[in-house]
Design goal:
two-stranded antiparallel ribbon, 2 domains
Length: 240
């Protein structure tokens, strides 16, 4: 599939796109993520400035620069012919067997919280600090936290890695408080998850499991809490 790519238009097409985007307003995707198509146009065009529309009529404009998830939404929802033609250039004609546009049409959103096994996962700790003094260190150590979190103790960053090394790892999106595959059909904020930015205390087994239960992490994935400063303090959990 194509990655981020620009779409070029003339002034008449730009005006048509602006009118359409203003009518659309706010879009809510399947996972609750919201966006305004008009903001993608504003990223390259000062459309609210009166003198913007005084340029030569035959001059070309950058309409927007869209990621895959937005291309999917545009293909399914945008009626503008020049937008659809541009998507065909990027992904192949929809009548072609290997067209990426077919992937857009066939993809179905799965609300992980409605799956029969949601909330039934089990968690096995593969790694937890057990060396002499680790318990005292985790409970009492006070060190300068390089991140602006609520706790100036040990700083942990969560990583969720694939079980086989081939499946895509998951990235955290703070806006939806969920983890996604980085190149999926829905947007991801790629915010990263520093434990101390969301919790007052350093992680314990109970607090980690409590956090994992309200995320749906597919079975087989490994959750890693990586201590970014001290060796021997990492934590790993297998989701089963």
């Amino acid at each position: 599939m194509a990655g981020i790519d620009k779409t070029y238009v003339n002034r008449a097409e730009l005006k048509e796109a602006v009118d359409w985007a203003n009518k659309v307003g706010v879009v809510t995707l399947e996972n609750g993520y919201t966006f305004r198509p008009i903001n993608w146009i504003r990223g390259y065009n000062d459309i609210d400035e009166p003198d913007f529309w005084t340029r030569e009529e035959d001059e070309f404009y950058i309409l927007w620069n869209t990621p895959t998830w937005l291309d999917r939404w545009l293909w399914l929802n945008c009626p503008l012919s020049f937008v659809r033609d541009r998507l065909r250039e990027q992904y192949g004609d929809e009548n072609d067997e290997d067209s990426g546009l077919k992937d857009f049409e066939n993809w179905k959103y799965e609300d992980t919280k409605k799956r029969p096994d949601f909330g039934k996962q089990k968690y096995t700790f593969l790694k937890f600090p057990r060396w002499h003094g680790a318990k005292w260190f985790m409970n009492n150590a006070r060190r300068k936290n390089p991140y602006p979190g609520k706790c100036k103790q040990l700083t942990y960053e969560i990583e969720i890695t694939s079980p086989d090394g081939w499946t895509e790892d998951l990235d955290y999106d703070e806006k939806t408080d969920a983890w996604y595959k980085t190149m999926g059909m829905l947007p991801c904020g790629y915010d990263g998850y520093i434990w101390q930015n969301y919790h007052k205390r350093i992680p314990s087994k109970k607090s980690i499991i409590r956090e994992l239960r309200h995320w749906y992490i597919p079975r087989g994935y490994i959750v890693k809490l990586v201590n970014i400063r001290y060796k021997g303090m990492d934590i790993e959990i297998l989701v089963k």
